[in-house]
Amino acid sequence: MTGYAFVLASGRLERLQAVGNIASIAAASEIPVAVFATMDGLEAFDTDRVESLNFEMGPVAEAMVTSDDVEVPLFTESLARAKELGPISLYACELSMDALDKEIDEYADLFDDVLGVSGFLKRADDKQVVFV
Question: Rounded CA gap, 105 and 127, in Å?
Answer without folding.
Answer: 28
